[in-house]
Amino acid sequence: MTRNFRSTSVLMAHSFTHPELDPLAVTTALAGAGFELHPPVRFSRTLLDTFDGRLRGGGLRLEMVESEGLELVLAGDGGPVAAPAQAAPRFARDLPPGPVRSRCERPIGVRALLPVITVSGTRTLGVQREATGQEGVVVALHDRLSVVGHGPLAPGWVIEVGEVAEQAAQTELATALLLSLGLEPHDADLFELMAAAAEVDIAGFHGTPTVPLDPREPSLDAFCRVLDNLAGAVEANWQGTLDDLDPEFLHDLRVAVRRTRSVLAQGKKVLPGQVRDRYRDGFGWLGTATSPARDLDVYVMEWERYVAPLGPEAATALDPVLEHIRSRRATEHEALGRVLRSDRYRDLLSSWRAWLRDPGAGRPKQARRPIGKVAADRTRRAQQRLVERGRAIAPSSPGEELHELRKDAKKLRYLLECFGTLFAPAPRKSFVQRLKALQDNLGEHQDAEVHVAQLQQIARQLQAAPGIGADTLAAIDQLTQHLEIRRQEARADFAHRFADYDTKKTSRTFEEALEPAAGG
User: Fold this and answer.
1) 41-49 and 60-66: which strand pairing?
2) 8 A C-beta contact, residue 228 and residue 357
3) pLDDT tens for residues 75-97?
4) Are residues 229 and 182 both part of a single domain?
5) Same structural domain, 256 and 365
6) Whole-prediction pTM value?
7) Is the peptide bond before 155 cis (omega within 30 degrees of 0)?
8) Which range marks the domain in which residue 115 is found?
9) Is residue 209 part of a domain?
10) Is residue 207 part of a domain?
């Protein structure tokens, strides 16, 4: 098999193009300079990454190369590595065992690997050998290029020179030869050049809730831009949620919906009352529709962590339970798909974005008030509400009060995120870390409580099901007890977590974060 120069000792590649030069003139020049030319072969190179570009963000690049076989090539810190593949991987667990998987698993997490761009064409390798006969500098001519879904695009051919660390002088000579032919050098490589030509964004979707805001701008304008950004996040995650590509699509869509509802709730006397009420109801409907599928997503993702302490026999006995949960999950995702394809959903998003971009002349009395002061006031009230509710919770308080406190913490966090550019960065970050520690405790309690209730319901459903043995029912009871213990531990830890949060230091940090906005 002709070697793929990306999978050997090559550290990076320089690329060159020419708008008019015949690539035959280049190969002729390479042959004259002593390069051994291999016969041209057809190739297809697909860039794989998550929807949010986690591999690229981590300094990694994963390609699926199909030429004389199928190969996965990973480049980045630690040097390039390659492994044969049988099919396109969908998740990290589908990657072949070894360095490719071990370096990709953590950044990928639960996200799906998606084809970002596929470039196909013919590739001719030119290899310059040393006096010993060992392969040295490699030049790859990629010709007859096209991008899947876009067809042939300019540049029609690209040359890449492998930069080999131990042969820097020879690499420089090869580069000088190409420059002498009038070729244009590029900082971008083949993928980047073709992605630019096809207008494909290879960086991934980065859905930050924060938009640039001026503390002096009118509040209505700022609210509309924040809400329009969140609507964009809902729409960006719509297709992946509909196709059930990975659980993060639904999670991110759901978070964008919750942030929208929270910002709408804070928009009293800034947003027109009728508009505010209409869309709080609309996004409330959407949020409710997403809950069952997301709850079951979490159950499946956390399953191994839940059952690990029970031992292998109990875990095996619980296999029918996991299958039952997966079946319910599939049913709920189908139901959610009908919601996302419905006229009600389409009307909600389209009318909402249309209003946000043209809210008209009718403006409530605080619509023109500077957003800095409005955001500071409402964030401060959200913090006061959280502290007051938290202080009122005693060891005997029902779990519902912790759930309400958790919702208060989320509302405060959303304000700090969505209007984040109005606040001082360092104290805001410090305060959010303290808030997150409290949220983690409340989330652990809530998840355990919800999953205990679900297990009890499943046990009732499976008791009469054929083929369900006593060992499975006993394991369900064991898992229920384990989750209940976790809930109790989180409940017992709450007082300590809240005490760590409810301090003078936290209050000072919070006020320091709000200071730039309050002075706007």
Assistant:
1) antiparallel
2) yes
3) 888 778 899 999 999 999 999 99
4) no
5) yes
6) 0.90
7) yes
8) 5-198
9) no
10) no
